[in-house]
Amino acid sequence: MNEPQQTLGFAHFLLSGDAISKGLLIILLGMSVVSWTLILVKGVTYFLRRRHAERFLKMFWEAPSMQAVARDIASHGVHDSFSRVTANALQAVQHYARTGANGGRMAESGSPADFLTRTIKKVLDEETVSAENGLSVLATVGATAPFFGLFGTVWGVYHALVNIGLSGSGGLDQVAGPVGEALIMTGLGLAVALPAVIGYNWLARRNRVVSAKLDAFAFELFTFLSSGQTLSGHAGNRTEPKEA
């Protein structure tokens, strides 16, 4: 009577599973590796870029002029969304000042403000796409992993019941063990889906917060560059990339 309790378990499930059960298990393990890799990589990238953004914005709002900002960017490089928008906007202003609307290309047509607006909008769109890379994978894992696990459970229960019917014995110990073993796949599916869903929600909220702050910063940057103003007297209006 105690033999099924000793032999049944996860190890027995792995050894006795057929090709479909093992294939589903491999798929779930692959989903877990991919989702955790995305969460860790994007999380570390976010914290590094946030630290660079804090340094850049502090420098930006304390700088005496846009020329000082340009020198800082040339010295430290571009490591976050805010400095990238600023660097491209400064390059757009310098490029238009050299070529004007007579460059012979559609991208250079219009007024200086139009050209600057298109440049900033292009960079903002590129930053949004970059921030959202991988989120669809996390959403897919969170939505489909439980169903892979459920399918594995149904498949395992089916084979367990077939084997019980062929053996001719239908006692509780003969039914509960194989059916309980088949539920392992449901648990694995939920274990894979939960981190993916939590990671997706965290990353999506983080992207919304950063995007809103970046839009506000881009508007102020456009105002400074299009009007030719320096940053003197504007040090109180700071756009910090910190979450509430």
Q: Roughly how many Å apart are the termini?
A: 59 Å
N-to-C SSE string, H for helix and E for strand: HHHHHHHHH
The major sheet is characterized as: none
Shape descriptor: rod-shaped
| Category from helices, strands and their pairing | mainly alpha
Beta-strand residue percentage: under 5%
- Regarding quaternary structure, what we see is single chain
Q: What is the total number of structural domains? A: 1
Strands, count:
0
Count of DSSP-assigned helices: 9
Q: Which parts are unreliable, with pLDDT below 50 for 5 consecutive residues or more?
A: 1-6, 230-237
* Whole-angstrom Rg: 28 Å
Secondary structure: helix percent:
over 70%
The chain-level mean pLDDT equals 80
Features:
244 residues, ExbB/TolQ_transport, membrane, 9 helices, disordered N terminus, transport, cell inner membrane, mainly alpha
Can you summarize this structure?
This protein is an all-alpha fold and about 240 residues long. It has nine helices and no strands.
Structural account:
Helix content is 80%, strand content 0%. The protein has 244 residues and is mainly alpha-helical. Helix 3 packs antiparallel against helix 7. InterPro entries: ExbB/TolQ_transport (IPR050790), MotA_ExbB_proton_chnl (IPR002898). Keywords: Cell inner membrane, Cell membrane, Membrane, Protein transport, Transmembrane, Transmembrane helix, Transport. One of its GO terms (cellular component) is plasma membrane.
